[in-house]
Structures are given as structure tokens and as C-alpha cells.
Amino acid sequence: MPLTRPPPPPPKPVFDEFSTPPDFNDNFKKKETTKYMNPCQVEEKQSMKCLDKNNYDKSKCEYFFLQYRECKKKWLAERKKLRQQGQL
């Protein structure tokens, strides 16, 4: 049986601006240590709503999970930059 190459992965979708509120960093600095704050709350809710709607079939909600993941990556990169600058 000859070996064949797997098909290339689908292109990564491009998302609009994420839902992180502009004053989130200020609120994050003021929060209590134990309080959980999620800058990607809208994306998180959309992905959970999609799961509920599709009987928890994760494959049907891949777009929402990608959007949430990208939002979290952006947020973590921003926090890292702020920590390096001594602002967080």
C-alpha cells in the first residue's frame, strides 16, 4: 500500500475584534485575589450555548472554540506584555 500525504489542514478563520472591554485591565488590577474574571466571557458563553444547542457535539461548535482560544491567546499575550512593562 503506497503512502499518501494527509490533506492540508483547513485555513484558520480570521476573527473580528474580541469582546474584551477596554477598561478590563483597570478592573483586573482592582479585583480581589480570589475573584475570577474572564475577558473572553462573551466567547465562552457562545461556545457553551452552541454545545447546549447541538447536544454537546463539540465538532459542530469548533468555530466558537477557536474564537475563544484566540481571544484567550490575545489576552494572555497582553497580560505578559503588561507584566514585562511593570504595569500589572
From TrEMBL:
InterPro entries to which the protein is assigned, alphabetical: COX23 (IPR051040), Cys_alpha_HP_mot_SF (IPR009069)
Superkingdom of the organism of origin: Eukaryota
Keyword match Iron-sulfur: no
Gene3D superfamilies (UniProt xref): CytochromE C oxidase copper chaperone
A single BP term in Gene Ontology: mitochondrial respiratory chain complex assembly
Region described as Disordered: spans on this chain: 1-30
Any single Gene Ontology cellular-component annotation: mitochondrial intermembrane space
Positions with biased composition (Pro residues): 1-13
Major location category of this protein: mitochondrion
Keywords for the protein's UniProt record, in alphabetical order: Disulfide bond, Mitochondrion
Subcellular location: Mitochondrion intermembrane space
PANTHER family: COILED-COIL-HELIX-COILED-COIL-HELIX DOMAIN-CONTAINING PROTEIN 7
General function of this protein: Required for the assembly of cytochrome c oxidase.
Name of the protein in question: Cytochrome c oxidase-assembly factor COX23, mitochondrial
